[in-house]
């Protein structure tokens, strides 16, 4: 079946540091890939997505590239802020309705 | 859009009681999804509706769980004879349905269930 494995946390960084959260997936076909973010006390929000190989999703300074050859969709941000402190979830969808999520990575950015 | 809303936000119940949660999707979104999230894990798919039709149910959805979307708008998720293992965050999401695309799912804030 489909599954997503993402980097275990928690991750603690200083402001302006570089952030990478690794995500790899297993799928039988060609899924769409997503990063969702959950800020403290809020619901899940879509951060970015990519629907085919070599696509790059980007939003709010975050980027992730769909790498079919390594079955990966790593999330990166060049300079994090305190407001980026959240739980980040990698997810895939191989059907057009069901999302399969990773376990989430908690990121804390210190001033 | 006012976003997806869920009620109640928190529910504490005793083992063996029945509980019902409500989800109001974004208006004009014809797809509605239910997920369950336990502590330290990502959400797991439970079921989804297209309009009023329930099209898919996960194996996670035991016989004690039932979901409805009677008029294709709001949805309810009922758990009968609750067990401590049902304690979790229950998330609802909605999306428009466009042919040939994987639509973004918009999530509500969730209902946190605690079974004592």
Structure, explained:
The complex is a heterodimer of chains A (111) and B (116). By secondary structure, chain A is mainly β. Chain A has strands at 3-6, 11-14, 19-21, 23-26, 32-38, 44-50, 56-59, 62-65, 75-77, 86-93, 100-101, 105-110. In chain A, a hairpin with a 2-residue loop joins strand 7 (56-59) and strand 8. Chain A is globular. The termini of chain A are far apart. With 116 residues, chain B is mainly β. Chain B is built from no helices and 11 strands. Chain B has strands at residues 5-7, 10-13, 19-24, 31-37, 44-50, 53-57, 65-68, 75-79, 88-95, 106-107, 111-115. In chain B, strands 2, 4, 5, 6, 9, 10 and 11 form a 7-stranded mixed sheet that branches. A 4-stranded antiparallel sheet of chain B has the order 1-3-8-7, with no helix packed on it. In chain B, strand 5 (44-50) and strand 6 (53-57) form a beta hairpin. Chain B is globular, with a radius of gyration of 14 Å. The model of chain B has no long low-confidence stretch (mean pLDDT 92). Chains A and B meet through strand 6, strand 10 and strand 11 of A and strand 4, strand 5 and strand 10 of B.
Q: Give the overall pLDDT of chain A as a whole number.
A: 94
> SSE order of chain A, as H and E?
EEEEEEEEEEEE
Distance between the termini of chain A: 41 Å
Main sheet overview of chain A: 6 strands, mixed
The DSSP helix count of chain A reads: 0
Furnish the topology, listing elements before pairings.
The complex is a heterodimer of chains A (111) and B (116).
Chain A: E1 3-6, E2 11-14, E3 19-21, E4 23-26, E5 32-38, E6 44-50, E7 56-59, E8 62-65, E9 75-77, E10 86-93, E11 100-101, E12 105-110
Parallel strand pairs in A: 2-12
Antiparallel strand pairs in A: 1-4, 3-9, 5-6, 5-10, 7-8, 8-9, 10-11, 10-12
Chain B: E1 5-7, E2 10-13, E3 19-24, E4 31-37, E5 44-50, E6 53-57, E7 65-68, E8 75-79, E9 88-95, E10 106-107, E11 111-115
Parallel strand pairs in B: 2-11
Antiparallel strand pairs in B: 1-3, 3-8, 4-5, 4-9, 5-6, 7-8, 9-10, 9-11
